[in-house]
């Protein structure tokens, strides 16, 4: 018979050709749909993965911030403690209250009484000096 050109489709009857065109069309559509679904699924997976990573990042950042806060707190406590130790280590100031006698107790009221007694009345610095002498 007559030679067909290479790559030419085999001859088909009209009825046949119609059906196969539709079959192809359906197959192509099906293929497209599958690819589309695959793409959507992959995209969804990627999105979830990204969200998971972001969530992890946020978690890690929270943990790091909490840890940093704890460290800061520890450092503050440490320096407070050190400051307190330094304060107690320093010799007590001579007198914290106003008055002109040396070596005050650092207690305002007592020093005040002490001062007024010893300065004005030549008292002993005892609280009893405040009481009037018995008549």
Question: Can you offer a commentary on this structure?
Answer:
The protein is mostly helical. The chain has 2 domains: 14-90; 93-135, no CATH class. The protein is 67% helix and 0% strand. It has 2 helices and no strands. The longest helix is centred in the middle third of the chain and has 76 residues, at 14-89. It is rod-shaped. Residues 116-120 have low confidence and may be disordered. Residues 1-135 are annotated as: Disordered. Residues 20-89 have a biased composition (Basic and acidic residues).
Rg (C-alpha, Å): 49 Å
**Beta strand %:** under 5%
- Please give the alpha-carbon distance between the first and last residues: 159 Å
The biggest sheet, with number of strands, parallel, antiparallel or mixed sense and barrel status, is: none
Low-confidence stretches: 116-120
Q: How many runs of DSSP E, i.e. beta strands?
A: 0
Kindly name the structural category: mainly alpha
Secondary-structure element pattern, one letter each: HH
The percent of residues in helical segments reads 55-70%
Count of alpha and pi helical runs: 2
Region (Disordered): 1-135
Biased composition (Basic and acidic residues): 20-89
């Amino acid at each position: 018979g007559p030679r067909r050109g290479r790559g030419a489709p085999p001859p088909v009857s009209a009825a046949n050709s119609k059906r196969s065109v539709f079959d192809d069309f359906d197959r192509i559509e099906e293929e497209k749909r599958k690819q589309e679904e695959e793409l959507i699924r992959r995209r969804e997976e990627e999105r979830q993965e990204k969200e998971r990573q972001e969530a992890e990042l946020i978690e890690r950042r929270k943990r790091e911030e909490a840890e940093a806060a704890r460290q800061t707190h520890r450092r503050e406590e440490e320096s407070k403690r050190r400051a307190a130790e330094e304060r107690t280590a320093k010799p007590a100031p001579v007198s914290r209250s106003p008055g002109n006698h040396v070596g005050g107790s650092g207690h305002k009221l007592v020093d005040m009484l002490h001062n007024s007694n010893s300065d004005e009345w030549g008292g002993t610095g005892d609280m009893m000096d405040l009481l009037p002498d018995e008549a």
